[in-house]
Amino acid sequence: MNASPSHIEVMRSQLGRARGLGAGGSGVGHWWAERVSAATLLPLSTWFIVQMFRLGGADHAEVVKWGGKPVNATMLAALIITTFYHAQMGLQVIVDDYVHGKAHLPARILVKIGTSLIGLLGVFAIIKLVAAGNSQKS
């Protein structure tokens, strides 16, 4: 019996033909990372909102002193990093679902670069806040 490769392909089940296509198992990791980052953002965002209410009406010097404290700076950095990581993953899903063809790869790269740069700017602002807070102490 001489079976041709096309004959073997036809005899495979639809599940057999579908295996090896798609995310290759990376989708579950992405899904979990989105959920963990969202869950992490809940307490961080709550902390930030409470702190902003506490600082309501504060002058610039008070805010700089508040931001210069290591715990506050660390929490702010965690909030910024987690926010833009979560945003990058969400935007990646949108690009994967709705951008096709030659535009797909450039769109994914643009999303990663854009969210990374904006997040980096946020972290740099926190570093400046800490430096200003430390210069007021001396």
TrEMBL record:
One Pfam family in the UniProt entry: Sdh_cyt
Cofactor(s), by name: heme
Membrane topology, as annotated: Multi-pass membrane protein
KW Translocase (keyword) present: no
Gene3D superfamilies in the cross-refs: Fumarate reductase/succinate dehydrogenase, transmembrane subunit (1.20.1300.10)
Transmembrane segments: 71-89, 109-131
Key words of the record: Electron transport, Heme, Iron, Membrane, Metal-binding, Transmembrane, Transmembrane helix, Transport, Tricarboxylic acid cycle
BP-aspect Gene Ontology terms: tricarboxylic acid cycle
GO CC list: membrane
Localization, UniProt: Membrane
Pathway: Carbohydrate metabolism; tricarboxylic acid cycle
Name used for this protein in its record: Succinate dehydrogenase hydrophobic membrane anchor subunit
Function: Membrane-anchoring subunit of succinate dehydrogenase (SDH).
Gene Ontology terms for molecular function: heme binding; metal ion binding
Subunit architecture: Part of an enzyme complex containing four subunits: a flavoprotein, an iron-sulfur protein, plus two membrane-anchoring proteins, SdhC and SdhD.
